[in-house]
């Protein structure tokens, strides 16, 4: 089979099409014929050589968000049939720790994520497959898992409800757009930022109530406060946007952080945190149940996952270049 593999670390020039043996399912596994796999900033971190994958693992096939058709199943798998259309929940959990037993599974002590979807075939755990109805386009389904599950859980952790005002620094990417859309499903209003006026125009069309064109944290703080203090900050940028995200909260407001695109550390003004009864919460991914709920929203016509562009497998390098250039609004999806 063919796969888009990382053959070195650095830029998109290290993403090349390679041949691998056709996979066979082991016990408790299924092989999917991949119809669509979206990419995430997580994959870009790996390509850049920043995290998780070493030289000894090259060539490396990334890709966590996989939709496809079951082409083979392991002997002991009883709940699946070949030909079924499915979406992979990329969570990999131990099944035995306290959080696997009592929930939420996203807190699993040995939590990790599936990689390997940027290929014609992917071998996955059969119990991580969610059925996909004929009504859902596999490309739209593949946009959901990492970005929308993460945004969904963050909004829940921030207790966002009808009428709330939610601040989303960096609102045009995978997690950002998902947050704006899901906040709207919950009846909340949003303030989104981007360095690009053109991308903000698209974000407004997708339902953002207020937009701020800036990448400067101090300027953004001022602009948000002109609109009004927020109930929640949903923050995947980290770095200096964390201090701003805290400062613009109303008394008792919540900031949830899932990422550090703009930097791994931040200064927080502690008296703003404790005197104003604010909360800062960390969050990673969501549960397979969350993914099923998100698919229900899509099937019910209440959520339309935003796909910026579809790429053939041979142009996976271009998808990574578009993410690195920050030219996209929403998800970039490869169709092997
Ligand atoms: N913990 C978890 O479970 C989890 C799950 C998903 C994602 N994440 C993390 O969340 C972050 C977002 O992921 P994603 O896939 O949504 O990424 P993405 O699609 O690349 O996000 C693009 C957004 O980030 C902004 N941005 C990009 N680089 C920036 C920089 N250097 N400084 C400031 N803003 C920047 C862009 O702003 P412009 O519009 O101005 O270009 C755009 O709004 C990543 O750090 C990722 O690792 C964590
Ligand atoms: Zn566990």
TrEMBL record:
Q: Name one GO molecular function term.
A: adenyl nucleotide binding
Q: Name one Pfam family in it.
A: ADH_zinc_N
Which residues, if any, are the signal sequence?
A: none
Any one Gene Ontology BP term: small molecule metabolic process
Q: Where is the Enoyl reductase (ER) domain?
A: 10-334
Which keywords accompany this UniProt record?
NADP
PANTHER family this protein is in?
A: QUINONE OXIDOREDUCTASE
- The protein's name is Zinc-binding dehydrogenase
